[in-house]
Amino acid sequence: MLNHQLLTFDADGHVKCALGEVPTEFNGGTPINNGLLCIAELAPTEYLGGWSYINNGCACAIQGLNPVNGPFAGNGRLAISVQNTGIDHYWCGLPFLANGRMAVSFGVVPPPDTGAFSNAFSSAFDRLEP
Question: What is the pLDDT of residues 103-119, one digit of tens each?
Answer without folding.
Answer: 999 876 555 555 555 55
